[in-house]
Each structure stands twice: as C-alpha cells, then as structure tokens.
Amino acid sequence: MAPKFGTSGLRGLVTELTDELVADYVHAFLSTVQSDTLYVGQDLRPSSPRIAKVICDTAQAAGVDVIDCGALGTPALALSSMAAKAPAIMVTGSHIPADRNGLKFYLPDGEILKADEAAINAAYAARTRVESGTQGSYSQMPEAETRYIARYIDAFGQMALKGLKIGVYRHSSVARDTMEAIFKGLGAGVVPLAHSDIFIPVDTEAVDPDTRAALQAWCRENGLDAIASTDGDADRPMLTDGTGKVIPGDILGVLSAQLLGAKSVVTPVSSNDMVRRLPEFDEVILTKIGSPFVIAGMAKAAHPEVVGFEANGGFLLGFTARLKAPLAPLPTRDCMLPIIAPLVAAQTAEKSLADLVAALPPCFTAADRVQEINRDKAKTFLDKLITDADARVSFFAPFGTIAATDLTDGLRVDFESGDVLHLRPSGNAPEFRIYAQAGTEAKAQDLVKAAYEDVAREVL
Length: 460
Prior knowledge:
By secondary structure, this protein is α/β, with parallel strands linked by helices.
C-alpha cells in the first residue's frame, strides 16, 4: 500500500518512501505554501537522514532556502519554523516500527489541517513542480533545540522542580537529551535510563507489559519521583508516578489544562470522560482522533483560554499562559508541557503525582492495539458492527447492554453499566485500536483484554 495521510502526517514503509516519491511530495507541499524558506527536522530512525537529505536537496533545487535543524523533536522544529513564519517538514514515523517512516508538514502558522492534506495530495497527483531557476541556500540551525529548552525553563523558573529525582527513559526518543536539559534547568536531579542506539518504537498510548515492568523496577532501584519519556518524534509524552505507574496521556492533559487555567478544552472522543466532569472547564469540545481535528475544534472554542489534548497526551496550547513568565501559544502536539505541568502541579500542592491523580474523579481508561492487521478484514468487521444492529448487539453482548453509540471516529459503545468500548482502525499503520473506560482501573484493563481477543479474531 502506497504511503498515505493518517491522523498525523504522511506515513508508509521505508521501501515505499523512495527518493522520487519524497521529492514529489516536497514539490506538492511547496506549491501549496509558496514560501522561499523551508525548515527541516528528523527523528532517530535509520532511514530519516536519507529522507531529510532528499527534502533538503529538492527544496534547494526548487530555489527554496533550507534551514536544517537536524535531529530534534517535532514541537521544537515547529517552535522555530513558526517564529520565522516559515513552513517545515519533519521526517518521522512517530511511534511505529523502524521499517516505516513519514513526513509531517507544517504551515507557517502551525500544523496542516485536513483541507491542506487534500491540497497537497491533489498537487502530488498532478505532479506539480516548483521551479525558480535559482538554487536555494542551505544552513544548519542547532539552536532550534536550545530555543525549545529555554521556552520551558524561562516559563516555569529554575526552581520549579527542585528536589525531584526524575528518570529519563532514553530509548529512541529524539528528545532524550532535550528532556534531561529541561529537567536540570528546572532544578531536578536526572537519572538517564536504558539508552539505545537501535530504534525502539514506543507507543505512549499503549505501553507494553515488559516496558511497564521495567519502569516500575527503575523507580524502585533509583528512588525516583517520576520517569519521563516520549514517542519517537517527541510530540507525545510518557510520565510515570513514583511507583513507575504510567499516567495516561489524557490525564496528563487534564492536569496540565488545570494548571494553565484553560476555560475551553478540545479533545477527541477517545479521551477520558473525566474532562467533562470537572467544574474548572466551561466548555469541552469532542472531535475525531488526530491533531488536525483538535486544532479545528480549538478555532471554534468559546473562550480564548483554549487548549487541546489527545488520549496519547499530545498537548496544544492555544493562548499565552501566565506562569513564572508568559508561556506563548504552541498550537502543535507537544510532549514537554504535559510532562512539566503535572510535576509542577504536584510540587505546588505538596503532593506526589499518584496523590494528585487520585484526587481526580474516578474514571479510568485503558488501550491496546492489534498489530499487523488485514485492513480489508478490519474494514468489513467495523462496517458490519456500525450498520448491522444485530451483529453489534451480538458482538458486544459479553460486555453489557448497549445504551448508546457514537460514530465520531470509529465506533464508540456506551453500556448501561457506564463502561465504554471504542473500536477504531489506525489511519496510517496496520493497527486496530481498542479503548475502554470503566469505574475502576482493573475493569478498564479487563475490558481491553477481553475485547482484544475478540477483535483479533476478526481483523488478523
């Protein structure tokens, strides 16, 4: 299957992301933004340097000046490109395995929306070319990462995390050095953990049991207050409490929105329903899954103090937050803000992260994914559940009596018990996502485990 746009960027197998295809997409993108400058960044996948070079060479040949920011997180790239009012391309496959990669496109004012994807695809199909007759320049910008680090140290202050001992799970996150620099700059002690020179795909929304066990062991062995990490390109956070227990991304989003003083919150339908039960938020807008939909929802918010976040934890700041110093908007998925803000909130309340989370309304989520699915079988399966009431009742009977369904993104089923199951195929990887909600953590996990077995039989 050829590379295609999903919830966040263009992705495909590395073997399909040929130099010719990448160049064609660069031309297609440049034809839609019409800029004389392009910022470029990349993650740590083995294929990323080759793809980044194709992007740089293609843009220069088209007469566009290239600013190569090297290996850095997606939000760090976006921070610099948006400050320069220039478009950007990030080479990353995010959390998916190293045999796949992708391109994330940024407009001068932030992430592209679905209409922009359509325009890029149309230009690609037409094999549109950008030609100026001149050669663009090439320069490197290592200070892009430094600017991102300073953003958070300046905003929260050099004593914000004083006294905390934070582990940094380094795996293959492109922001592993960035995280350490920010934590040290905020006064925390840092313990590097499990550095790897081989790319390890970490999905912060569905952390595997072996990784969870390792996180718990590292906390015990090192006396840590928390462990932080990100996905491959650092637009999704991972944060544990002092026991090594992973805090779900949408809970990090809630805690961050509270600290920042948000009035409007935009989040996908897959996020924890808790956000709708909190009195601090005057408005909660639910969207389809994917940052383009969250950004579109933020534009419709009733209050200027608006934030967006996803179940994977990617956090979008839509207003200037007043902290130790002003924190300017960054309307792209960010990993560091939803890591720092809960840690600061716990420090301010003189509580542990675990106690801070425990004080929230009791609504618990769990998620997993069936990988390497048969896409045709998955589509047939989900379409039948959506259109055939008898098939839907039969499939979900072991989980309870259906009270309501929601087709905002995939199929969400609310049961009379208050439990929730949400089924959705990934938009850009051969995966089928399963989300659950329940009144206890154990029940949510049991729902996902049971649903996984039933779904796997249908989609593999």
